[in-house]
Amino acid sequence: MTSRTREVTDIINGQATSDGAGVRLYRVIGGPGLPDLDPFLLLDEFVSDDPGDYLAGFPDHPHRGFETVTYMLAGRMRHGDNQGNSGLLEAGSVQWMTAGRGIVHSEMPEQEDGLMWGFQLWVNLPARNKLCPPRYQDIPPHDIPLVPLPGGGRVRVIAGQLGEVAGPVHGIDAEPRYFDVELPADGSLSLPLPDTHTAFVYCYDGSVTIGGDRPTPLERRRLAVLGAGDTLALTAPGAAARALVVAGRPFAEPVARYGPFVMNTREEIMAAIDDLRSGRF
Ligand code: FE
Fold first, then answer.
1. Which of 3.40.630.30, 2.60.120.10, 3.30.700.10, 3.90.230.10 is the CATH number of 8-277?
2. CA of 135 to the centre of ligand 1 (A)
3. What is the 210 CA–ligand 1 centroid distance (Å)?
4. Which of 3, 227, 236, 262 is a plausible cystine mate for 9, CB 3.0–4.6 Å?
């Protein structure tokens, strides 16, 4: 069987915006340029060493019907919810939270200065599991395997399989792949990705080139949507670069979305609002 290299079909710029109680961030998926990318509903990058950009945090807010994935590169974030769960997200850690039928939680910086840098990705749930019990996978940095690349660089395997190495996140409906790739100057990577999956590359440091026959450059803070194929070809021409590579199985179901609720119908959104108001989260 011959492999087919995925080419870039679209490039999206992150848009500066703010969310929570006034955290400045870059929204890449979930904004006007790319409202969603089935099964992905949102991708934010927050990066600043100015406390005024992040100190307000994300006080109590609800979620229902999907999963939030927080990956910290630098800084510390305290997490707590209305069901007694709490934890500290430190640099290099991942929290994969399946909100399911609903939680109310807060995500607050646990630092008063210094660099805060990370990502939040929202992954949809299929209709049959939107009201599942909430579940957390809190992954400390040392539980995320680091795969060295032959020509230098490395891949942190957060979810999915890379060769013999499996990421620590499991039991997710979208069968996600979530890789954090670091390439040295002129380094390259060939990465298998299931051809049934939606896939994207988000460059967060330096710039990369993607594709086989038609290599496409991707600058920092831009996202490349990948076309069909089973292999990603990534290079870092001239200078070191870092990028997230993420893939997931699309659900092809209707999306009804209202703020922190993502369901399939407007009636289910109304029910979520009613349940929240009546204290049923
Ligand atoms: Fe949240």
1. 2.60.120.10
2. 14
3. 32
4. 227
Q: Which of 181, 182, 185 is nearest to 238 (CA)?
A: 185
Report whether 125 contacts 132 (CB < 8 A): yes
Q: Compute the distance from residue 69 Cα to the ligand 1 centre, in Å.
A: 9
pLDDT at 1: 58
Rounded distance between C-alpha atoms, residue 137 and residue 90, angstroms: 14
| CA 18 – CA 54 distance, rounded (Å) | 10
Q: How far is the CA of 68 from the centre of ligand 1 (A)?
A: 7
Overall residue count recorded for the chain in this entry: 281
Q: What residues does each domain of the chain span? A: 8-277
Query: What is the SS3 assignment for 142?
Result: helix
Distance 62 CA to ligand 1 centre (A): 7
pLDDT tens-digit readout, 213-260: 889 999 999 999 999 999 999 999 999 999 999 999 999 999 999 999
